[in-house]
Design a protein that fits this description.
The complex is a heterodimer of chains A (828) and B (167). Chain A is α+β, with helices and mostly antiparallel strands. Chain A is 27% helix and 24% strand. Chain B folds into 2 domains: 80 residues, Ubiquitin-like (UB roll), CATH 3.10.20.30; 71 residues, [2Fe-2S]-binding domain (DNA polymerase, domain 1, Orthogonal Bundle), CATH 1.10.150. The longest helix of chain B is centred in the last third of the chain and has 17 residues. The radius of gyration of chain B is 16 Å and the shape is globular. Classes of the chains: A alpha+beta (828), B alpha+beta (167). The interface between A and B is large, with 63 and 56 residues.
Chain lengths: 828, 167
């Protein structure tokens, strides 16, 4: 007999916090993933949308005869026909008058942006469908377009939706604290004329797609797609196409990136359902990249006018007021939720007590916006970060010290913001110290000083401080429309012991690379005391098979809380049933049963044991051994819905706890600017992410990398711009420079771990990342500019714009900022 | 539907096996491989040869298969992602991507892995600059390229240590 000590009891082995091998990798590395374009059905036709070349035009006529004359073209569906087949336009979140806006699966009467779909063709091959779409003759009567959100709010602007009466999608004032009092009594008031946060998109590498089959046999509409929020899509399209949700069947396996953009494919999916119904065939649609750039959805563009900041002489920032104009594009897809979602982070990372925002969201002749990584918060956080840097620049404060002075301090948590949101935990000053240490800030400050005038180069050091608010309270929808019956949040999980004692898990989520199969297995395995590779988590989502709630999907930095919270709850229920059955079989007390590696045994008596297969046998194929009461109650099929502890926020005061967790990001960037060309090169970069307890550190780090590099891309290279007539200037990866491996700097990643006191596992949702690189790079460029230069007022800084900034002192370009001192601010 | 004149008979080698097929002259090579031959690992991410998701190895050279027509496969030797792992055993490049978390959603991954394999067949001592250049034609929107670069460095190291070929 061996005398070596026995191993640690298997029950205590946990992989939480360990980077176990990702389950998803093997199939993806061998080309065995199943993405939407890999799905085929019998008699499938290929769909191609006919899109508007105009930004704004009346549809005079559509003639599909030439297209239909081609052999192999099955059918063409136009906007009027689609409307005829529908029961109602898409549901609108906005209250009237914008809520009266009518959007149908295809454009009716008018096109409102470059890329608006007027018809869809179904044909035997991809190529033929594309050719036939070219042959659909559409006569347009062009109309004046409006592409600027501030101009769109003007009463004289061309109106996109006549029924609304103006281009105002939503308008309201958020007023917390007493900003007028603060401005009147502050030592200094800093006034910033205009700040502009630009349009861009995370442009997932896999475009949108769907195979939709309106099955005449069962009357079920089968939708294989890569939509990332299928329950939202179901709730929007079901009433429009007249199909009850129990006859809609969304499914997806692998999704090639989404970042929020793939919430927005529902209008096309609705059109495909009608097309399939008309043709009596499945309709397969794989978006081309150009279609994606034109119409898949772009991130929110926001302009801040007349910002006034109240600052004390010691650097305390009391608060600010601003007029925000958000550009929703031509239709409201998920908007105007963006008009409230930024309030999750109203004072940014700072202890500002007075926040006043007059918020206007407008409709413009541009692609509809859709939530893009950091949705609505990153625009606002960019404002708060610009405020800090501009105040520092104008009043001569050190931007590091100014941040530290105004940050929410570690002892302040849980910290309630002026509008009643609760920041759960964190340590911002320490995160900043770590970031500055990682880039060796002292060395760069010395280099900056040494680099004399006339060297042609400038060094700038910048900081981005952001919050990635996760697990949001859908009750915030009531702040934009009190009539909406939404509140709370949640996710569902199903855990079962299968016929031979195997563990199976499914969830309502639609992962796109976040490793849900891996981390859900870790959580369930931990509770059932078994290795995670023996827990099978269903890949992807299937509406007819998986469990779900209306909030299900993968979006808004919440899986680590909602998804894993649900997995934990379902596994705990399953564990309780297993233990009860084991105790019954072994004639032992339930409290003496321990689990390990698929066995249940009596503590201290290893001979008395039953494997999971024996437990499963009692339920599935040997139930006469159980009491009638046990047969009725136990099933080894356990569903759990995790729900965060939210209340309904108050639409009057616009106060309430809108989000459960706040992961924080502190980024530090060192840039070098070439004065002759305006080129910005990143010399060093550090990213600190505090997202509480890490279930799988490698996946967390991967998310930090991804969010950081997409943010750098947006700051320097990526922008969607429209000309005055509404033509998109960047409709392919030639014009839209998606950041590459050659543009990416080395990134130092550091972490600190402030567990959330509010979540089942101490984790915080993460992954969106708050857009910290946009802020850090703008901050670094600002740092490289002199007091005579204009301020950094745009979130996108390509070479030309930086060149203008660097030379603005010589060219006499307005600086865009003023300071009033002496407690006589005229802010009110 | 299809004119007689637009169809062409071709013969080529795909992942070591002879393939004979009749193809439409205008069909893209990537659509022929995916839709006709059913190898779904080669992906499409753009219409313009920009993103590299459709990268494969053609007569020993790395090419983007959305920029070639199916008839151009005639007589060629083509390797796709499906041809790398044999009997389920990952190549050093695939293994390194797994260990270094060089993939998230996995959509760009086949193209990136083919580009990395192509690089390591030419050199097992690539500099970081050479590694970055080797995947400059591959767009990845998830990883920020950082773990892709680490994966390729690790694959080169593992291959050197093992005295093997990259794939």
């Amino acid at each position: 007999m061996s005398t070596t000590p026995t191993e640690t009891p298997v029950e205590t082995r946990s992989t939480i916090g360990q980077s176990v091998p990702r389950v998803e990798d093997r199939r993806l590395l061998q080309g065995q993933g199943e993405f939407v374009d890999d799905v085929w059905m019998h008699r499938t036709g290929h769909a191609h949308f006919v899109r508007s070349p105009h930004g704004h035009a009346r549809i005079v006529s559509i003639d599909a005869r030439r297209a239909l004359s081609l052999d192999g073209v099955y059918t063409v569906l136009t906007g009027d026909e689609a409307k005829e087949m529908c029961q109602a336009p898409f549901f609108q979140i906005a209250p009237p008058p914008a809520g009266k806006l009518e959007e149908w699966p295809l454009a009716v009467e008018k096109v409102r942006y470059h890329g608006d779909a007027v018809a869809v063709v179904l044909a035997e091959t991809r190529e033929l469908a594309r050719d036939a779409a070219e042959l659909v003759d559409v006569e347009y009567e062009p109309l004046p377009a409006v592409v600027d959100t501030v101009k769109a709010a003007d009463p004289d602007a061309p109106v996109l939706h006549e029924v609304v009466g103006s281009n105002i999608a939503w308008q309201g004032t958020y007023d917390w604290g007493d900003i007028d009092f603060a401005l009147q009594n502050a030592d200094h008031v800093v006034e910033i004329d205009r700040l502009h946060f630009h349009r861009f998109s995370s442009t997932p590498l896999e475009c949108n797609g769907a195979v939709v089959h309106w099955d005449p046999g069962t009357n079920i509409v089968r939708i294989s797609s890569n939509n990332q929020m299928p329950m939202f899509a179901s709730m929007v399209i079901g009433p429009t196409i007249g199909v009850a949700s129990n006859r809609l069947s969304f499914s997806s396996q692998d999704i090639g990136g989404a970042f929020g953009i793939k919430i927005g494919s529902y209008p096309q999916i609705a059109a495909l359902a009608l097309l399939s119904r008309k043709a009596g065939r499945p309709a397969k649609w794989t978006e081309y990249r150009t279609d994606h750039m034109l119409s898949a959805g772009q991130g929110n563009e926001r302009t801040f006018l007349d910002t006034k900041v109240a600052v004390q002489s010691d650097g305390t920032i009391l608060g600010f007021k601003t007029r925000a104009f958000d550009d929703a594009g031509a239709y409201l897809h998920y908007e105007p939720l963006g008009a409230v979602i930024w309030t999750q982070v109203s004072p940014g990372c700072y202890r500002m007590k007075h926040v006043h925002v007059e918020y206007t969201e407008t409709l413009t002749n541009k692609c509809p916006t859709i939530p893009n990584r950091g949705y609505s918060r990153l625009q606002h956080l960019w404002l708060t970060e610009r405020i800090i840097d501009i105040v520092a620049h104008e009043l001569g404060f050190d931007p590091v010290e100014l941040r530290k002075k105004n940050y929410v301090q570690p002892e302040d948590y849980p910290y309630e913001t002026p509008n009643g949101c609760v920041y759960d935990s964190g340590d911002l000053p320490r995160s900043l110290d770590i970031a500055l240490e990682m880039i060796d800030v002292e060395k760069w400050r010395a280099t900056q000083r040494e680099l004399g005038h006339g060297s042609g180069k400038r060094i700038g050091i910048g900081i981005g401080s952001t919050l990635d608010s996760g697990t949001n309270n859908f009750g915030q929808a009531r702040l934009v429309n009190p009539e909406l019956p939404f509140s709370g949040n949640g996710e569902a999980c199903y855990a079962k012991l299968d016929l031979y004692g195997e563990v199976n898990v499914n969830l309502g989520t639609t992962p796109q690379g976040q490793g849900h199969e891996t981390t859900a297995a870790q959580v369930v395995a931990d509770i059932l005391s078994m290795p995670p590779d023996q827990v099978h988590v269903t890949a992807g989502f299937n509406q007819q098979q998986n469990t779900y709630v209306a909030f299900s999907g993968t979006y808004a930095s919440q899986f680590a809380v909602t998804g894993l919270g649900a997995a934990k709850g379902a596994a705990e229920k399953l564990r309780a049933e297993i233990i009860e059955l084991a105790a019954y079989a072994l004639q032992a007390d339930a409290q003496d049963i321990e689990l390990g590696d698929g066995m249940c045994s009596v503590r201290g008596d290893a001979e008395r044991a039953i494997p999971f297969i024996g437990i499963a046998n009692m339920i599935y194929s040997n139930n006469a051994v159980l009491t009638p009461e046990m047969r009725e109650r136990l099933s080894l099929n356990c569903r759990y819905v995790y729900t965060p502890p939210f209340q309904v926020p108050d639409p009057e005061s616009k106060r309430g706890n809108l989000t459960l967790t706040y992961a924080s990001q502190i980024h530090a960037a060192v840039v070098e600017i070439d004065e002759e060309t305006g080129e910005v090169e990143i010399l060093d970069y550090a990213a600190i992410d505090d997202c509480g307890k890490r279930i799988h550190p490698q996946i967390v780090e991967g998310q930090v990398h991804g969010a950081t590099v997409l943010g750098i891309g947006a700051a320097l290279y990526e922008a969607f711009e429209y000309d005055e007539s509404g033509q998109l200037q960047q409709a392919s990866f030639y014009d839209y420079h998606a950041i590459t491996a050659l543009d990416t700097p080395d990134i130092r990643v550091g972490d600190i771990e402030s567990p959330s006191p509010f979540t089942p596992n101490g984790a915080k949702g993460m992954g969106e990342g708050g857009g910290a690189p946009l802020h850090a790079i703008c901050s670094a460029i600002q740092d490289a500019l002199s007091r005579e230069d204009a301020i950094v007022s745009d979130s996108h800084n390509p070479w030309e714009r930086v060149w203008r900034l660097v030379h603005s002192g010589e060219t006499g370009e307005p600086r865009g900022v003023r300071v009033t001192s002496g407690g006589k601010g005229d802010g009110a | 539907m299809v004119d007689e004149g637009t169809v062409q008979a071709i013969e080529f080698t795909l992942n070591g096996e002879k393939v004979r097929a009749t193809v439409e002259s205008r069909q893209l090579l990537v659509h022929f491989i995916r839709d006709t031959l059913g190898l779904k690992g080669t992906h499409v991410g753009c219409d313009t040869g920009s993103c590299g998701a459709c990268s494969l190895i053609y007569d020993g050279k790395l090419i983007k298969s959305c920029m070639m027509l199916a008839p151009q496969a005639d007589g060629a030797e083509i390797e796709t992602i499906e041809g790398l792992a044999r009997d389920g055993e990952l190549t050093p490049v695939q293994q390194a991507f797994h260990e270094e978390h060089g993939l998230q959603c996995g959509y760009c991954t086949p193209g990136v892995v083919m580009a990395a394999t192509f690089l390591l067949r030419r050199t097992l001592n690539p500099s970081e600059e050479e590694i970055r250049r080797s995947v400059r034609g591959n767009i990845c929107r998830c990883t920020g390229y950082i773990n892709i670069i680490r994966s390729i460095e690790a694959a080169a190291g593992a291959t050197r240590a093992g005295g093997e070929e990259a794939a």
